[in-house]
Design a protein that fits this description.
With about 500 residues, the protein is of the alpha+beta class. About 40% of the residues lie in helices and about 20% in strands. Strands 8-7-6-9-10 form a five-stranded antiparallel sheet. A four-stranded antiparallel sheet has the order 1-2-3-4, with helices on one face. A four-stranded antiparallel sheet has the order 11-5-12-13.
Length: about 500
């Protein structure tokens, strides 16, 4: 029996001891079966006999093929990196640990670069971090990919992407066939080869990543946001990251640490071994009560991590965008005690009906769909937003242009009527893409007028800080939604909905 097979067999028995639900063994069996398919780099699968006691070291070097991809992107100025020493990791022999955060080199939205360059789509996810061990001269002696999050994935239409108000969008003006071509570039196989679609609720928070490694005889977590990550063991370690760039990453690290400390000791210990040996990245969203985009988190009083996926380390011949089938990941981490996103599974041929239902939902951002083939490999990911979210995001953006963005002689603040007119035209653009009814367009334009008239009164009376429009939109839109009977009536008519198209 090879060391890797022996390791997985021991992990299976280790997990069985902690099962608390009736279906747990089936989930674990499938989990281990999937882990057998994960790629192994130099040293992957080498399991010391005392693995359960945690005496392991960073033993993985980045595969040569991946180093060449990183170097090619750096040479072509497609990506940038920020390297910082980890202040809380102390090694012998004057060795230091550095975190290298890799991100797309773009002054605005990254859609254009991802659309043009296959190497970015295939090898540079939104969340790529390397851990480097260097000697006292700065010479690198070992390096590993410690965060490799979800690849960039598109929306079903331009309005489902995150930066629809920007000047560039790769398929904004194209035909439906060109839109399909643009979307399909992000899939490993044509979408029609899918057998199952796992539709997860799109959490309206901040992206979060978590992994971990044994370094020396100590285990360290790595956690952060899209392009900023930190290394830590304790809350005190997290407090050392004081720069503004770590503000969200530190909250993610703290939220995960508190969750990990609340787990049963068995589960907490196993999770360390899992992260180290599989080299997977736990992808989450963090809900922040004081930083809400569009959809309200209701009575949320503290930061909360929600698990959404598990991703594999870099793969030269990628067969799946996720380390495990999406449903297995969510069942498994729920079994361990984590909060996970809501989901439902539908056959591929039934997905369009689900899309139609999602468009009409109220008080939700939408869904993220994981397309799985007959082997349960994730061959593509697609996001689809609700009409509710798309229109409210547009209202937020238009208000930000008027009240929050910097003004100058060349860019003076628009008058109230100019702002209302621009927002009305934006509603017409959305109608063209979403193919909503004329009645709905009229309602959204009425709501837009009421919105700017109400904001104008608040601005003149200095009732609250208008920067909240961008930073915590629900805190502003909530009072507006009940500010007059006219507003209440329009919102009620919109919530009743009308037929939509995909």
């Amino acid at each position: 029996m090879s060391e890797r097979v022996e390791y997985l067999a021991r992990i299976k028995q280790f997990l069985y001891k902690g099962i608390r639900v009736s279906s747990g063994k089936q989930v674990v069996d499938y989990l281990v079966q999937c882990l057998c398919r994960l790629p192994r780099g130099d040293g992957i699968g080498k399991c010391p006999k005392n693995v359960i006691n945690g005496n392991m070291y960073v033993h993985n070097r980045i595969e040569d093929w991946f180093v060449s991809k990183i170097n090619e992107c750096l040479q072509n100025k497609l990506i940038k990196e920020v390297a910082r020493e980890a202040p809380c990791v102390k090694l012998r022999n004057n060795l230091s640990v550095y975190i290298r955060d890799i991100s797309i080199k773009s002054h605005g939205p990254d859609e254009e670069l991802y659309s043009k360059h296959e190497i970015l789509r295939a090898h540079i996810p939104r969340g790529l971090t390397l851990l480097s061990i260097r000697d006292e001269t700065g010479l690198q002696v070992m390096e590993d990919v410690v965060i490799c999050a979800l690849r960039k994935f598109p929306g079903a239409t331009p309005e489902d992407d995150d930066d629809t108000d920007q000047a560039y969008h790769p398929h904004r003006k194209g035909s439906s066939s060109s839109q399909d071509f643009e979307r399909d570039k992000y899939f490993l196989k044509p979408p029609h080869e899918s057998k199952l679609v796992v539709a997860t609720e799109k959490i309206n928070g901040e992206m979060a990543h978590v992994s971990g490694r044994f370094i020396g005889n100590e285990f360290y977590f790595i956690a952060g946001s899209k392009n900023v990550h930190l290394v830590f063991q304790t809350e005190e370690d997290i407090s050392h990251y004081t720069e503004e760039r770590y503000s969200i990453a530190s909250r993610i690290a703290l939220a995960f640490l508190k969750k990990w400390q609340s787990l049963e000791s068995f589960t907490a210990s196993w999770l360390q071994i899992f992260f180290h040996h599989t080299r997977t990245t736990l992808v989450c969203e963090i809900k922040l009560p004081d930083h809400q985009h569009v959809v309200s988190f209701g009575s949320l009083s503290q930061d909360e991590l929600v698990v959404i996926a598990l991703t594999p380390p870099p793969q030269e011949d990628c067969q799946s965008l996720t380390a495990l089938p999406e449903e297995t990941t969510l069942q498994f981490f729920s079994m361990l005690g984590f909060c996970v996103t809501q989901y439902e599974c539908v056959e591929y041929i039934a997905a369009k009906n689900l899309f139609l239902e999602t468009r009409l939902k109220w008080n939700t951002e939408g869904i993220v769909c994981y397309y799985e083939d007959s082997n349960r490999n994730t061959i593509g990911i697609l996001k689809l937003k609700s009409q509710f979210y798309i229109h409210l995001r547009a209202l937020r953006q238009q208000a930000s242009y008027r009240y929050v963005s910097k003004k100058s002689a060349k860019n003076p603040q628009k008058t109230l009527e100019e702002a209302k007119g621009k927002s009305r035209r934006r509603m017409e653009e959305l109608r063209d893409w979403l193919q909503t009814s004329s009645e709905q367009l009229q309602c959204w334009q009425q709501l837009s007028d009421y919105w700017f008239e109400w904001l104008d009164v608040q601005d003149k009376s200095k009732s609250f800080e208008l920067s909240q429009v961008r930073n915590n939109f629900p805190a502003v839109f909530g009072p507006f939604s009940s500010s007059s009977q006219n507003v209440v009536d329009v919102l009620r008519r919109l919530e009743m909905g009308s037929p939509a198209k995909i």
